[in-house]
Amino acid sequence: MSEKEGSKQNDCLECRKKKDARWREDFPVSWESDNYVTRREMVKFLALGSLTIAGANAVVAGLPHIVKASQMPRTRIALASSIPVGGSKLFAYPSEDDPCILVRQTNGDLVAYSQVCTHLSCAVVHNEQENALFCPCHHGYFSVAEGRPFAGPPTRPLPRIRLEQQGNEIFAVGVEVA
Amino acid sequence: MSTRQSQGTTLFTALLVLVGIGVVVQLWLLAASVDALMRHQGGTAVRAAVASAVVFVINGLLVLYVINFDRKVEQGRN
Predict the structure, then answer these.
(1) CB atoms B56 and A53 under 8 Å
(2) The pTM is what?
(3) Domain shared by A37 and A118, yes or no
(4) In B, which residues are within 8 Å of A39 by CB distance?
(5) Which residues contact residue A42 at a Cβ distance below 8 angstroms, ignoring those fewer than 6 apart?
(6) Which residue of A51, A60, A159 is in closest CB contact with B40?
(7) Which residue range is the domain that position A87 belongs to?
(8) pLDDT tens per residue, range B11-57
(9) CATH number for the domain that contains residue A94
(10) How far is CA B53 from CA A61, B26, B29, B31, in A?
(11) Do A47 and B19 touch (CB under 8 A)?
């Protein structure tokens, strides 16, 4: 490379530096420092994330209280006379996607529970011989009187459906979660 | 690096890890409370929210501790 060519290249480099200097005045942050995240920034970001998640958790916990129990629909589910002692009937409450089971106990009382097993959400069925609600998936058993688990893997009771009887008609009016 | 600075670096890394673990636990609690909500188990969601708030307070206290530590180091330099 001749001396002239070398000096031309140097000039161009200086030109570039000048141009860069102007550009840098407007945009002083380099790519390297823009991508660099300090531990302090990270810990502040995590603290803000922690606050956001705590807020989201509070909102999730408050949702059922916002949608009050009084807003639960009153749904006619069966005629009392149509369910014999030891018999059962399936229905959906509060929405069509929430399967439930209504059972007449041996003492004549009617009880209703969510049909969704509290173990892994299989549908429980009434087992008349054992006077229990039985989950066929993992052989979980719930008492008909209280909905509490007494055998198998489930540990939480079934949500109970509040019932009201008017004459011969039975209505579902709410859900009680233990 | 001075002893104080090296202490600060170790402390800061440890606190960063602790706060990170706290955030992961909070994410797990959020997932659990959404799951509980879908199963109409409001009590579980409330307990998860309380636990999440406690973890946030711990995280906040750790960050405050770091800020105070920084302030002391700055005062020591000046």
Answers:
(1) yes
(2) 0.53
(3) no
(4) 12-13, 16
(5) B16
(6) A159
(7) 70-176
(8) 888 888 999 999 999 999 999 999 888 777 778 888 999 999 999 99
(9) 2.102.10.10
(10) 12, 9, 10, 15
(11) yes
